[in-house]
Design brief:
This protein has 155 residues and is of the alpha/beta class. It has a single domain, classed as Cytidine Deaminase, domain 2 (3-Layer(aba) Sandwich). Helices cover 42% and strands 18% of the residues. The chain is built from 5 helices and 5 strands; from the N terminus they run αββααβαββα. Strands 2-1-3-4-5 form a 5-stranded mixed sheet. A hairpin with a 2-residue loop joins strand 1 and strand 2. Helix 1 packs parallel to helix 5. The longest helix is centred in the first third of the chain and has 22 residues. It is globular and about 45 Å long. The termini are far apart.
Length: 155
């Protein structure tokens, strides 16, 4: 395993722990961590239900906190790790923040806006294209979501 893949998997495992925190709060289990120079700048997990905020997705929470910590709305040279392929709102924020690299776990065939339902990662009309890598620890990330929704349907 290459160094880059090992680092990606390590940070994705961190994002998975954050997704589990969201699940413990009754939220859809999605976690995100924003990294600069192999150091955590910010973390986020889904909180739209508990925060009464439809924009409180894991990615948005991490981007907001990183911007404050770095005192810059441009997150140049940062990598965002997220357990689920980002939606259109989150891809917009990722592009506007100029996140250099995006790494995600599970594919979201219905709502994913990187390479699935929409392909915004390299859309010509955006002022920034993000390098991306999908399906890192995808099975673990996908199982977390499937198990969550399976349990909800049983209720």
């Amino acid at each position: 395993m290459g160094v880059a893949l090992a680092e990606d998997e390590a940070w994705m495992r961190h994002a998975i722990r954050l997704a589990q925190r969201a699940e413990a709060q009754g939220e859809v289990p999605v976690g995100a961590v924003l990294v600069l120079d192999n150091k955590c700048m910010a973390e986020g997990w889904n909180t739209p239900i508990t925060a009464n905020d439809p924009t409180a997705h894991a990615e948005i929470m991490a981007i907001r906190l990183a911007g404050q910590r770095l005192a810059n709305y441009r997150l140049l040279d940062c990598t965002l790790y997220v357990t689920l392929e980002p939606c259109v709102m989150c891809m917009g924020a990722i592009a506007h923040a100029r996140v250099k690299r995006l790494v995600f776990g599970a594919i979201d065939a219905k709502r994913g806006a990187v390479c699935s339902a929409l392909e915004l990662a390299n859309a010509d009309f955006l002022n920034h294209q993000v390098d991306w890598q999908g399906e890192i620890l995808a099975e673990i990330c996908g199982d977390l979501l499937r198990d969550f929704f399976k349990a909800r349907r049983k209720r």
